Amino acid sequence: MIEISTSPATTTLVIAGDLDLAERDQFPEIAARVVGLRRQLLVIDMCRVTFMDSTGAAFLISLADSGRKRGGATVLRGCDDRDLFVLEVCGALDLFRIDVDHRCDPPAGAGAS
């Protein structure tokens, strides 16, 4: 699931679940919506991503590349090391700013006894 929210200068994508080949059918519509919003900053929240393959990485890369061509920036937050590795292997890590200060909220029910 991918949710889109906006502020005057920022578009935020919150991604939950798998970001992979099985989800690719929704990528073109989401990309078109994000590009159409024409915000300078795209924040991609990956706190709830459970798996990302090269198809998901290509989707993120296309979003970052579109923003960069318009003079914008793309920030990844909540990315785990595995996801960063996939982007690095694709040679695209430099397209993104990595939010190293962001801390994801614990999953619902975590820590409850």
Set out the fold topology:
Blueprint: E1 2-6, E2 10-19, H1 27-37, E3 41-52, H2 54-69, E4 73-77, H3 81-89, E5 97-99
Parallel strand pairs: 2-3, 3-4, 4-5
Antiparallel strand pairs: 1-2
Report on this model:
- Helix 3 (81-89) links the parallel strand 4 (73-77) and strand 5.
- The chain has helices at 27-37, 54-69, 81-89, and strands at residues 2-6, 10-19, 41-52, 73-77, 97-99.
- Helix 1 packs parallel to helix 2 (54-69).
- The protein has 113 residues and is of the alpha/beta class.
- A five-stranded mixed beta sheet has the order 1-2-3-4-5.
- 32% of the residues lie in helices and 31% in strands.
- The chain has one domain: STAS domain (Transcription Regulator spoIIAA, 2-Layer Sandwich), CATH 3.30.750.
- It starts with a strand and ends in a 14-residue tail after the last strand.
- It is globular and about 30 Å long.
- The longest helix is centred in the middle third of the chain and has 16 residues, at 54-69.
- InterPro entries: STAS_dom, STAS_dom_sf.
- This is STAS domain protein.
- Residues 1-91 form the STAS domain.
